[in-house]
Amino acid sequence: MNKNNQLIELIEKTDLNLNLKKITFDELKNGKVNNSFIINDIENKRKYVLRINSLKSNQFNINRINEVKILNAIKEIEIAPKIIFSDPEYNFLITEFIDGSECRSNELTLHDKKTLKNIINDYQKIKIELPKFNYLEHIRKYEKIAFDKSTINNQLVKKLKKFYPLLEEFQNENWPPVLCHHDLNPSNIIKTNKGMKIIDWEFAGFGHKKYDLHSIGLQDKENFFLDELINIINDLWYEIDNN
Questions:
Q1: C-alpha span between 139 and 134 (Å, rounded)
Q2: CA atoms of 241 and 32, how far apart (whole Å)
Q3: With the C-alpha atoms ordered 86, 87, 91, 93, is the resulting torsion angle positive or negative?
Q4: Which positions ≥6 away from 60 have C-beta within 8 Å?
Q5: Domain boundaries, the chain
Q6: What are the tens digits of pLDDT across the range 191-215?
Q7: CB 3.0 to 4.6 Å from 90: which of 52, 64, 165, 219, for a disulfide?
Q8: Predicted TM-score (pTM) of this structure
């Protein structure tokens, strides 16, 4: 079975009223975790994104149920793709296509930065029934997977040994959790003619309010701990993804 037939089979599982003879597919190459395709609805001149969720979602500590809950909660502020169809078994997701250009961190203007801060502030106000994100458990899970694969390097092991006491103290502090994207980088920020939109919310959760600001370089003051936390999570992610 060719790829197009496989994608059409998924669409047939949905309640979308698409003329299957009048659609085409384009593969999106920039996804780090999943396989994604643009659905070109030629008849109605619309585009959608069909994302086939990675079989390694659990390994990456991705909670698909929470992701759908978050996307539904933020749809009213119109800063993310709206869900068109969510597979009940969470094997795939269809969202609207966000037409625009990726941001580049070295090209963010003062106006762009102000806009991003406002967007972050807006979604951090949204209340959802989610548990407080546990960065300690998150990192320990990534570390165990890297150890099991024998891919973790000694330098990172030493860094983690020094960092864990600080991380445990941080996790036990009584900071109020807010909605965090947790993967806020230029490739996930799209400039459109209707303003900035943020895509790829699969790592989102109720975390620390300064995490996203530090991820995208919008925090005025340096914070060694948060910068180190973000760097370690990124380093471990690449350890388990590339091997």
A1: 9
A2: 9
A3: negative
A4: 33, 54, 203, 237, 240, 241
A5: 3-96, 101-241
A6: 999 999 999 999 999 999 999 999 9
A7: 64
A8: 0.93
